Amino acid sequence: MADIMTGDAMLPGRSALAGRAGMNVAAPDGGKTGLRVQEVAHIGKINIRGTKSIAKVIWNHTGCDFPPANNMVSSAGARHIVWLGPDEALLLCEAGMERDLRRKISADLAGQHFAATNVTDALCVLKVEGPDVRAVLAKGCALDLHPGKFGPGQCAQTVLAHAGVTIIATDENCFLLICRTSFAPYTLDWLQDAALEFGFVFQG
Amino acid sequence: MLSLPCPFCGQRDETEFLNAGPAKPARPNADVTDSKWVEWLTVPVNTIGYVEEKWWHAKGCGKWFTIKRHTVTHEIKMPDEDGR
Q1: CA-based nearest distance A84→chain B, Å
Q2: Distance CA A81, CA A89 (A)
Q3: Domains and their CATH numbers in chain A
Q4: CB contacts, 8 Å: A157 with chain B
Q5: Does the pLDDT at position B55 exceed 90?
Q6: For a surface tag, which of A66, A109, A112, B60 has the fewest beta carbons within 10 Å of its beta carbon?
Q7: Model confidence band, residue A10 (pLDDT cutoffs 50, 70, 90)
Q8: Is B35 helix (H, G, I), strand (E, B) or coil?
Q9: φ/ψ (deg, to 5) at A198
Q10: What distance in Å separates residue B12's CA from the closest CA in chain A?
Q11: Is the pLDDT of residue A172 over 60?
Q12: How many inter-chain contacts (A to B, CB under 8 Å) are there?
């Protein structure tokens, strides 16, 4: 019980979209599939609240540099820092490493005003990619998704079809979509519906 | 639909924000007259022109900020640097 209270418990996990196969829709023109969606299951997520100076300690700790500007992501290997807000960042790390990392960060910052929370199971990460990914996302999102305005390395917290999401551009036609776990089935259904005209593949 | 300038995220769509009402003038001192107090507390100013409003980037970065919005044209300006 004590482990559960501190967020350090090792509980058997079932990913948010497990068992949701069989949703594929062929492209109507028989061409390339416009949108491919994959759940990045169990990737570690730690939410960090604190001033920039505290965050810098953490960023050094993970091997990532400070993101160069607001709403940007910095990466070092499998670890990414998503700068969410004036005093908030989301740390993505290898699956299974989040408990250890959170404990180390908390120990480093003991006595300072901060919060590091393991939110691995609260959030679901979807990798959405394909030639029509920007057109699909633009159907439910007011953000300017032109490649010149929202390119690789940029991130934004916004609303996608009424659901709060964090969008990270990892490549020209590849995004990470972070939504609440409870919203994951809805988001997936919406993506499938929005991608009917382009073709849709969900790789569990 | 408004497009609002979030100090952290930049220009964003109104759907990401919650309006938190007018930025009120400072609360009067304790020795204020009753009429002045009631006026501050309950009388809404229905200006034609620029009003100061608080907005919360609720579905974005979570930042609270104040803007000046023209009630007729919806033109938006950032308030002067007065610490608010």
Answers
A1: 6
A2: 7
A3: 32-199 (3.30.1360.120)
A4: 9, 59-61
A5: yes
A6: A112
A7: low
A8: helix
A9: -110, -15
A10: 7
A11: yes
A12: 41
| Number of domains chain B contains | 1
Question: Which residues in chain A have their CB less than 8 angstroms from residue B12's CB?
Answer: 142-143, 158
The residue of chain A with its CA nearest to that of B15 is A159
Nearest to A70 among B9, B16, B59 (CB): B9
Question: At B76, which CATH number?
Answer: 3.30.2270.10
Query: What pLDDT digit, counting tens, does each position of B11-36 carry?
Result: 999 999 999 888 877 889 989 999 99
- Establish if B44 touches chain A: CB-CB under 8 angstroms: no
A161 touches chain B (CB under 8 A): no
> CB distance from A164 to chain B under 8 Å?
yes
d(CA B38, CA B43): 7
Note whether B16 contacts A86, CB cutoff 8 Å. Answer: no
Q: Between β-strands A88-93 and A44-49, what pairing exists: parallel, antiparallel or unpaired?
A: antiparallel
According to the 3-state scheme, what is the secondary structure of chain A? Answer: CHHHHHCCCCCCCCCCCCCCCCCCECCCCCCCCCEEEEECCCCEEEEEECCHHHHHHHHHHHCCCCCCCCCEEEEECCEEEEEEECCEEEEEECCCCHHHHHHHHHHHCCCCCCEEEECCCCEEEEEEECCCHHHHHHCCCCCCCCCCCCCCCEEEEEEECCEEEEEEEEECCEEEEEEEHHHHHHHHHHHHHHCCCCCEEEEC
Residues in chain B: 84
Interchain contact, B61 vs A88, CB within 8 Å: yes
Q: State how far the alpha carbon of A202 is from the alpha carbons of A28, A34, A135, in Å.
A: 17, 12, 17
The parent domain of residue B63 ranges over 3-82
Q: Which of A107, A127, A44, A126 is nearest to A81 (CA)?
A: A44
Q: Please list, in sequence order, all residues whose beta carbon lies within 8 angstroms of the beta carbon of residue A188, skipping any fewer than 6 positions away.
A: A17, A20, A23, A37, A126, A202
